[in-house]
Design brief:
With 427 residues, the chain is α+β, with helices and mostly antiparallel strands. It has 15 helices and 13 strands. It folds into two domains: 222 residues, Jelly Rolls, CATH 2.60.120; 137 residues, no CATH class. It comes from Oreotrochilus melanogaster.
Length: 427
């Protein structure tokens, strides 16, 4: 049995519940370090980190063949500004000011990449300071803008990636990012989009991570129920402002070196600092292991919107639709799009189970090729997890209030197809 098939059989024959995504205490704040590529399988990652929702660190050996590790870095481990300008000089990039707080985040602007590199060089020459503040290039969709560039290859451990599979299919967006920032740049306290998993690889430089297991963030909220902007701020020790702070666990701390990859579990809040001039590659992703967590997050978000505008429920005839619109503007998705998300993921797996994979598709970097790499039983596992969430979505009262006639196929028909595909695959 190959490693992908073993991983899938492990997943399928054990009925892991979504409760495995809950808060976990790591002994002494320990985070496993994965040293050798050849001795660490997908099944190891699935069993020991995805399902129990544990963080881990992959050694630099897992990224040493990447084009970015070879070309974006100088001989002494610094960003290779000349090479980057040659390849991406005319791009326009999103840049955040780490020295300014605006609505609990850093304000962003769009800058020409060559202007940002000019700023960065001056920032270094001035002892890592500037009258413009500490500017951090964040959330750059470089892979989408420059698909021909040899930048990196997604490790197999992160290849079951429903978010990017879906957004690639509708050709609207993706959740693959490049970050570049000087020493001292940082990201405030947050959890990732849709409570997804994330992985972050340092092309060069070093990062310091402060991680809180899912659920611990409840102890870090202020007296109004708001999360802190900076989890290291002295004000958190003021009991009148943060009454439950003393009940929180200390954060799990990671210092990530050049070339290493950090795996951030679903729903874990974190704060990140660049200890040196640093470039990193980051993905957010959801799969069968945490799609129930994503669904729970969406329900919580809708409930929060409903509470905020409950006084307008009677005057507004389509109040429930307005709630969906507000939720989508805040999170990027509503219940009907979540249904379409599940549908595309399911149909890709059903297609492979029913029709197999032709040689042309398997040779390409496609979702079906990724499904084939992980094995047919992994596709079955994905479908079983999709059935559970889709069943819950179909029974949800807020979902049933929407006009579902535009959904094709209807939820009942899709559920029937999923169950039939699973039954057939297991014969």
């Amino acid at each position: 049995m190959d490693r992908a098939t073993f991983a899938c059989s492990t997943a399928f024959f054990h009925d892991y519940s979504s409760s495995s995504q809950g808060a976990l205490c790591l002994p002494g704040g320990h985070v496993d370090f994965i040293e050798k590529v050849e001795s660490f399988t997908y099944s190891d990652f699935f069993r020991d980190y995805l399902i129990p929702n544990h963080p881990c660190i992959f050694s630099a050996k897992f990224t040493e063949e990447w084009g970015s590790r070879r070309n974006w870095v100088t001989w002494d481990g610094k960003p290779n500004f000349d090479y980057l300008l040659q390849k991406f000089g005319e791009a326009v990039v999103p840049v955040a000011n780490c020295d300014v707080k605006e609505y609990n985040s850093n304000p962003k602007e769009q800058l020409p990449f060559k202007e940002y590199i000019k700023y960065w060089k001056e920032y270094i020459r001035n002892g890592h300071s500037s009258s413009r503040g500490c500017l951090y290039l964040k959330d750059w969709h470089l892979s989408r803008a420059f698909p021909e560039q040899d930048v990196y290859t997604t490790p197999v451990y992160f290849s079951s990636d429903w978010l990017n599979e879906y957004w690639d299919a509708i050709a609207v967006d993706d959740y693959r990012f490049v970050y570049m920032g000087p020493k001292g740049s940082w990201t405030p306290f947050h959890a990732d989009v849709f409570r997804s998993y994330s992985w972050s690889a340092n092309v060069c430089g070093r990062k310091r991570w402060l991680l809180y297991p899912a659920g611990q963030e409840e102890f870090l909220k202020d007296c109004h129920g708001n999360l802190p902007f900076d989890v290291t701020a002295p004000s958190l020790r003021d009991k009148s402002l943060y009454p439950r702070y003393n009940q929180s666990q200390p954060p799990v701390e990671i210092v990530q070196e050049a070339g290493e990859i950090v795996f951030i579990p679903s729903g874990w809040h974190h704060q990140v600092y660049n200890l040196e001039d640093t470039i990193s590659i980051n993905h957010n992703w959801v799969n069968g292991c945490n799609v129930a967590t994503m669904w729970g997050f969406l329900q919580d978000e809708l409930a929060a919107v409903q509470r905020e505008i409950k006084e307008w429920k009677d005057p507004i005839e389509d109040w429930h639709l307005q709630c969906q619109l507000i939720m989508k503007s805040c999170t990027g998705i509503d219940y009907k799009e979540f249904y379409n998300f599940l549908k595309i993921i399911a149909e890709n797996r059903i297609s492979v189970l029913e029709n197999g994979l032709d040689d042309e598709a398997s040779a390409k970097n496609t979702p079906k090729a990724a499904i084939s790499t992980l094995g047919m039983l992994h596709a079955v596992f994905d479908l079983k997890r999709t059935v559970k969430v889709l069943t819950s979505l179909s029974a949800n009262e807020d979902f049933k209030k929407l006009d579902l006639t535009s959904l094709s196929p209807p939820p009942e028909a899709l559920l029937h197809h999923l169950k039939a595909a699973i039954d057939t695959a297991l014969l």
